[in-house]
Amino acid sequence: MKTLKTKLATYSIALAMAGMLGAGCNSLTKTQKGAAIGAGGGGVVGALIGKAAGNTALGAIIGGAVGGTAGALIGHKMDKQAAEIKQTVPGATVTRAGEGIIVNFSSGILFDTDKADVKAVAQTNLQKLAASLQNNPETNILIVGHTDNTGTAAHNMDLSIRRAEAVKSVITADNINGSRLTVQGKGETEPIGDNNTVDGRAQNRRVEIVIVANDQMKTQAKTTGQ
Asked: Which positions make up the signal peptide (predicted)?
């Protein structure tokens, strides 16, 4: 079982390998280095390593990266949106990774035990996130549901899907185009904590919302960076 620390270490290796394959990475600023996954070969390597790390959220960001100057420009926009989400969305843990953002909500914040109906107070949190998504329309969003390993694998997979769908429903209710959102349930298959401990199981019960550039943002970034 991989811990979050191990997965983040693997992700760092992916960035380093991809950066060596990308052109001009040595001249990038701190912000640019965060997005420096080279196009072409580097992007393929990043996607493969992200998948091998067993983390859907990180894999989506690495696999969709464009790298180079365009990636740096995208990273700069993501810096701004991540800061906005941190300031306006209570209950969310916000992580900047490469050319994307991962917003993590503990299932305890969003749902009652073994339920998939978003709590009333949590709906307000998601509505504030939806406002940020409205302010930044040139992005795609992946919603990934996760559980701990309590109960059967089949039940946990179903619960994770229903919870991810419930989050999507709240977000799209605030005039967010549903075509921007993709939903996945991973059940108990991608733990970030130790399922043998109470704290570890609490970490594993979560919904991750991954924000990445859409094709329009990528095209604009490539054009601007030429």
From this structure: 1-23
Domain map (residue ranges) of the chain = 4-224
Residue 202's nearest CA partner among 93, 89, 51, 60 is 93
Which runs of E-coded beta strand occur in the chain? Answer: 93-97, 100-106, 139-146, 181-185, 206-213
- Does the 4-224 domain belong in CATH 2.30.38.10? no
Tally Cβ neighbours within 10 Å of residue 105. Answer: 23
CA 146 – CA 158 distance, rounded (Å): 10
Quick: pLDDT tens for 113-160. Answer: 999 999 999 999 999 999 999 999 999 999 999 999 999 999 999 999
Q: What integer pLDDT is reported at residue 53 of this predicted model? A: 56
- Contact between 144 and 57 under an 8 Å Cβ cutoff? The reply is yes
Which residues face 183 on adjacent strands? 143
Edge to edge, the sheet with strand 93-97 lists 93-97, 100-106, 206-213, 139-146, 181-185
Q: Decide if 19 contacts 36 (C-beta within 8 A).
A: yes
